[in-house]
């Protein structure tokens, strides 16, 4: 735990140093594509004036000066499966983005989906030594949170204080400087498989880059696709990617739950490939141009020509109706949405005051998906595009770039996390012997 805490602090400091130097890259390592954006920071002092993640968060602070995307290789279900292939793909995207920006980048902030995320809600309370809340008191109350035994081989990726309460006044976002007797906090902690983080960190190192930050792509997609009111009142963001669908729930501008479903757009492509007996590249093209989620009477008459690459003219020149294609795609899309609904139900999403659901990611572009989703998820559903940021090329403004744009906002305006505060050494939130001995002395 202490090693992770220290490494996150080191990455946070590295990010600050990179932003002060003026250039940092963000990398979205996905199953279907790897996107890289190069950001230039100017006027970093203005960043601190932004409160939270507003509609124009970070707009004053940075602009995108380079962007590139390449087909992902060696990544399955959002996790690295073949190190050398992924390294080659990352290098390709990074070199193209550096060439466009005409500048060399040393520091990169990466995000990834998958790695079986699990959410925990923690609570802690301390008595104040003086009547005014200081930075030290916040450190103490965060370290007072009882960390659950989340198992071997898992690491904490995010640990954010979501809410503070001073005496009986709850709902404070920043209690520093306020008067009171007792301070309590609620913290959201997200853990992921340690192996997935280590593989990604190792892969980035092999590309001669310094890793200056890590984030879950379901978190950053939510930052960029949800508007300010949705983040405040409560909404879920469903990031439909190639290998997995990321789910995040926000309220009061903080993420309170994250999860992922290991089915995505590539499984739909695989179904088309098997159903029509065509190569995956052809299946992807058919899905992109003609795919849909809801069939109408017109679709029986719309004929699609399938061009193959087998050399057998009769086999390659087949025709199918669009209704048949939708018949192949729809069961898999329904399966993804049913899984998402099960996760939302388990998280208690139906108890939130507002139940808006926003679909984003490349998979959300299938025509008719929003109607089908509102029927299965039973809520108001809309399609979300990422916020506009300065200098972002037109090609990178679609829903498929929600995580990449969210990474820019995450880099410019990070929310307070556990490791931003100096935690007293004797209060490290580890299941340590020292803490057990202290408890024994105090209570026996």
UniProtKB/TrEMBL annotation:
Location of the SHS2 domain: 24-225
**What InterPro entries does the annotation carry?**
ATPase_NBD, Cell_div_FtsA, FtsA/MreB, SHS2_FtsA
UniProt lists the family membership as follows: Belongs to the FtsA/MreB family.
State any GO CC term.
cell division site
CDD domains attached to this UniProt entry: ASKHA_NBD_FtsA
* Biological process terms in GO annotation: FtsZ-dependent cytokinesis
Q: Where are the transmembrane segments?
A: none
Give the record's keywords alphabetically.
Cell cycle, Cell division, Cell membrane, Membrane
Function statement: Cell division protein that is involved in the assembly of the Z ring. May serve as a membrane anchor for the Z ring.
What Gene3D superfamilies does this protein map onto?
3.30.420.40
Bilayer topology annotation = Peripheral membrane protein
Cellular location(s): Cell membrane
What name is this protein filed under? Cell division protein FtsA
Q: Which domain of life is it from?
A: Bacteria
Q: Which Pfam families match?
A: FtsA, SHS2_FTSA
- Asked whether the UniProt record includes Hydrolase among its keywords, one would answer no
Assembly: Self-interacts. Interacts with FtsZ.
């Amino acid at each position: 735990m202490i090693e992770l805490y220290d490494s996150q602090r080191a990455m946070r400091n590295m990010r600050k140093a990179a932003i002060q130097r003026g250039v940092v890259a963000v990398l979205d390592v996905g199953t279907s594509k790897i996107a890289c954006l190069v950001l230039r920071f100017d006027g970093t002092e203005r960043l601190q004036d932004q409160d939270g993640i507003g509609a124009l968060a970070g707009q004053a602070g940075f602009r995108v000066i380079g962007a590139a995307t390449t087909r992902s290789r060696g990544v399955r279900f959002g996790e690295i499966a073949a190190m050398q292939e992924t390294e080659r793909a990352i290098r390709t995207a990074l070199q193209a983005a550096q060439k466009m920006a005409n500048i060399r980048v040393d520091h990169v902030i990466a995000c990834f989906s998958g790695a079986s995320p699990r959410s925990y809600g923690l609570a802690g309370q301390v008595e104040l030594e003086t009547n005014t809340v200081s930075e030290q008191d916040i450190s103490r109350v965060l370290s007072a949170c009882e960390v659950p035994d989340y198992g071997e081989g898992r690491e904490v990726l995010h640990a954010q204080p979501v809410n503070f309460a001073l005496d009986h006044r709850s709902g404070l976002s920043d209690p520093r400087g306020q008067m009171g007797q007792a301070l309590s906090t609620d913290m959201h902690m997200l853990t992921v498989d340690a192996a997935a983080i280590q593989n990604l960190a190792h892969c980035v190192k092999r590309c001669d880059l310094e890793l200056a930050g890590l984030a879950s792509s379901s978190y950053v997609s939510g930052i960029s696709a949800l508007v300010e009111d949705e983040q405040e009142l409560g909404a879920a963001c469903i990031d439909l990617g190639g290998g997995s669908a990321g789910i995040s729930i926000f309220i009061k501008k903080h993420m309170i739950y994250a999860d992922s479903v290991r089915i995505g757009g590539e499984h739909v492509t695989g179904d088309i490939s098997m159903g029509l007996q065509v190569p995956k590249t052809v299946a992807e093209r058919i899905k992109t141009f003609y795919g849909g989620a809801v069939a109408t009477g017109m679709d029986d008459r719309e004929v699609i020509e399938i061009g193959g690459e087998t050399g057998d003219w009769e086999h390659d020149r087949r025709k199918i109706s669009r209704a048949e294609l939708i018949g192949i795609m729809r069961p898999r899309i329904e399966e993804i949405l049913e899984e998402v609904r099960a996760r939302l139900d388990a998280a208690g999403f139906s108890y939130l005051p507002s139940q808006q659901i926003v679909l984003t990611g490349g998979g959300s572009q299938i025509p008719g998906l929003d109607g089908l989703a509102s029927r299965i998820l039973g809520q108001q559903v809309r399609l979300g595009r990422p916020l506009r940021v300065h200098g972002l090329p037109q090609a990178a403004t679609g829903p498929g770039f929600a995580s990449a744009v969210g990474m820019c906002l995450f880099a410019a305006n990070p929310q307070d996390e556990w490791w931003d505060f100096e935690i007293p050494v004797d209060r490290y939130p580890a299941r340590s012997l020292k803490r057990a001995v202290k408890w024994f002395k105090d209570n026996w």
